[in-house]
Amino acid sequence: MNLKGKVALVTGASRGIGRAIALELAQQGMKRLILVARDRQKLAEAAKEIEARGAQATIMAVDLTKPIFVNVAAAQLWRSYGPIHLLVNCAGVAYQNSFLRSKLPQVQEELSLNFLGTYTLTQIIARRMASRKEGTIVNVSSLMGKVAAPTMATYSATKFAIVGFTQALRHELASYNIRVIALLPTLTDTDMIQKFELFRWVIPVTPQQVARALISGLHRDSPEILVGWQSHLAAWCLRFAPWLLDAIVQISSPQKLQVTGTFGA
Ligand SMILES: NC(=O)c1ccc[n+]([C@@H]2O[C@H](COP(=O)([O-])OP(=O)(O)OC[C@H]3O[C@@H](n4cnc5c(N)ncnc54)[C@H](OP(=O)(O)O)[C@@H]3O)[C@@H](O)[C@H]2O)c1
What we know:
Blueprint: E1 7-11, H1 16-27, E2 32-37, H2 40-52, E3 56-61, H3 67-81, E4 86-89, H4 104-132, E5 135-140, H5 153-173, E6 178-184, H6 207-220, E7 224-226, H7 229-240, H8 242-252
Parallel strand pairs: 1-2, 1-4, 2-3, 4-5, 5-6, 6-7
Helix pairs in contact: 1-2, 1-6, 3-4, 4-5, 7-8
């Protein structure tokens, strides 16, 4: 994809991977970045950094789990700054817990942001891209959208959903000249993982590494973009030695969180 002079909307752009992606896209010569998240202050800081790189920045402070607000805001954005050529659905939330101790409100939050939030914005933007017969959509899944692991059952479920959603849309929207891509970062050093008990031997990458992998994937027209050698190794094992991957996942998973005992009567 040629990024120069184009407009992108990036969710989760106030911090972490989304912010790094927005900055890298500005560095690549995009004309305007539309930054979406809830924290207006942090979005304004990211916008300043983008403008320092020579691109224009617009912020949209909205809770992506509230479809009515998202609809209104996205329609206004398209009218004022459209067309949007690239949509990056990056906002996400993750809770790590033993499944037996998992809490429904946290699961609902994961589902309403990671899956339904992505669905809502994608439908709004994809309809407009379809009428112009041009666009690229990047959905941020995770290596955990391919390899599920103990203590992350519900988060993994949302990320598997994103991989399926992306695959189906890739075929369905191809006739409208819309490319749909999945980005699958491995563990990345952001706010999200600060309270996590980490998996043994998994070395976090930086958000900047994820952003750079996305850019090279966009240039190569890859349908799925894996980040880091550990992800490539995991994908290889999944394909050729799934039994080995199962064993590695089991022994590398955080033990303390896998609570044993009696639950209920
Ligand atoms: N970190 C990892 O190890 C890792 C690995 C693989 C995949 N990922 C995926 O990468 C994406 C970004 O993760 P990250 O590590 O950068 O997380 P992060 O640092 O916690 O950032 C999450 C982003 O999502 C936004 N957000 C959260 N709730 C929102 C809501 N209700 N409405 C709108 N925006 C909301 C946050 O902004 P506000 O708080 O300002 O709203 C923030 O910009 C996620 O989809 C995650 O699943 C992360």
